[in-house]
Amino acid sequence: MARRVINKKRHLGLQQLSAFADTGRTFLGPVKSSKFIIDEESHESVVVGSTVRLLESLDLSSAVGQLLSEAVQAQHNTYRTGASTLLLLVGAWSSAVEECLHLGVPMSLIVSGMSEGLDSCIEEVTSLKVPVHDVFDHIDSTKTFSELEPLNVSLCPFLQIPSDTGLILKERDLKDVASQSLTTYSLSERPVKSAKLFRPQATVDADKNTSQTPQTLRNSLLAGGRCRQSVLTHSRHCNREASDQWTSKHGAAAPQTDRCGDLGELAAGLSHGDHSSMRLVEGAIRLQHQNTSMCQGSWMMPFTFDTSRVFTCCLPGLPETFSCVCPGYVTVVSMFSATVLEDLQNQPLGVVLIEGDLTENYRHLGFNKSANVQTVLESMKKLQQDSSEELWTNHVLQVLVKFNVNLVLVQGTVSEHLIEKCVHTKRLVIGSVSGSVLQAFAEASGAMQVSYITQVNENSVGRGVSVTSWRSSPLDAGDGISRMAILLKTEGINLVTAVLTDPVTAQLQTKEDRFWTCAYRLHYALKEQKVFLGGGAVEFLCLSHLQILMEQPLNNGDQICSGGLHNTSSWLASSLALYRPTVLKCLADGWHKYLSTVICNTANYSSEFEARTFIQHHLKNATDSGSPSSYILNEYSKLSSGVFSSGISNKPEQIPRVYDIVTPKIEAWRRALDLVLLVLQTDSEIITGSGHTQIKSQESEGFLFL
């Protein structure tokens, strides 16, 4: 980690936040860079590619470090996305608040002003929300994302299967996988009432006088696209009648090509430059919904992406082109256990699902072994020959033989001795299986989950599960132990596995993190049925909105209407008018730094100075236009303008529109500001405590108050 000089005469906590945040700037934007973290004592290194993994590898033993880690973990555990945005805004706003303190702005005005300013920005960006069904209904005709042509199969338009040869495992690579059993694809927002202190009346009046309102421009933007050509000619979603209905409903000409619903545009806009991961996510959702009745209604109906039924399996040492998604459960077993595959594959198997451990000494948490009680067996000779574990193992085998069970899935750990015995009798036992996987197999096979092997009966055994090797050759993870990847599935199972491969083992963790980030972006977009216009559009609107507020005079009536300024003194009221532009500029600096970082990470600008100049140019144009939201929507429609686009293609016609998820982004803003203001107020209370006056100034220079 780069060293940073801390000025002990200024706010230490805010400086520490800013120093921590600067380490994660390369994780924001479409072109991300990994980092090497080196331990100073052991000199061991690890590669990290996300904010969460970065903070896990750093020494965050300080109070400020702990608060930052908790905030990032809360964001990640709740939404699985937005951690990089949170970290960058924490650093930007920490530096800006520190500058406000240096300029003499009272702490109470910083807290109230920035909080209400953020609330005003959150209300302002609602004009940039786009319903998901509008994205589906107004798809651009250009192949913006995956450049894939759908296979000629009879599926609903939403379920058309991509056939990217670069990401689909060819038959020669998976000769041991039956083609019929493996279909492979590669591929609380809180309402905020605007604070009257920051309500931009001038902007509202300008919007009313504009010839095109933001809503009109947004509708025009969405209506300007054309749908991709579908292979279906008789679907009710893709025919001439649909075009006529569009004309009668919206009073405008329908796009030239047949209309259809498609996931590609939304997935492309939410990929944020990580196309390979989003292709896999797109394939997973198509697999998850291919057996549902999605074709019974229009795509304006709500539907979701169940991430709890999607799993990852990381396989090191294989080329990246082997990454794919497939229905069923892909896992790794030892080569010793894999020897039974030849006898078990291509036949329906009986399965038992164990919720706990499958070991001899596993007991319920409430079980207490009775003291001074001895078990008397009929044959003491048998007791001497066989240990208690051997007796238990034999009993388990008897149960499996009795009910014709060849496959056992266990949520916890499994006795190694039992695994060895089962392999000799042509039975496969797999441990450390997720509870959601057990539930999926229970629903599809008719099995009942049990806690102990003694609870197994005819009704708890599932039928019809198949097992086969995912790839015939063994895998080497670099630890000297050979393993085999296998595939478990049964008819109608609602389970999808994303197989992630990479020749570099250290990159697999990053690849898995990015897959889940894309998956949860798509999950929340479909769950909330709305997205933000992305590419920095919402942050730019916040920046331009604050720019207008800074230049807007503060009315006398607004001074007493603000949520945190009731019954204020005349001094505080006069200070509010004096420091208000400074506080707003403090908040705006965070958005400015965020946008400049994103633009630099698109590889379009070589320095932050060029990026800031670019932002300042468009900020002036947006402010002069009188309606920043209208200006943003106009620029957003120009995909080749370099504004609000992904900036990852040299061909303007192939640049996808960019989208952002709503609630996780707003919550990242709130958490970032809450953390900065918490450190600001906590440090201030400690420094201004009753004991502070007893500390001499020369002694306090090297004292860390947090």
UniProtKB/TrEMBL annotation:
UniProt GO molecular function: ATP binding
GO biological process, any: chaperone-mediated protein complex assembly
InterPro entries with a match to the protein in the record: BBS12 (IPR042984), Cpn60/GroEL/TCP-1 (IPR002423), GroEL-like_apical_dom_sf (IPR027409), GROEL-like_equatorial_sf (IPR027413), TCP-1-like_intermed_sf (IPR027410)
Listed GO CC annotations: chaperonin-containing T-complex
Family matches, as Gene3D superfamilies: GroEL, GroEL-like equatorial domain, TCP-1-like chaperonin intermediate domain
Origin: domain of life: Eukaryota
Protein name: Bardet-Biedl syndrome 12 protein
Native source organism of the sequence: Myotis davidii (David's myotis)
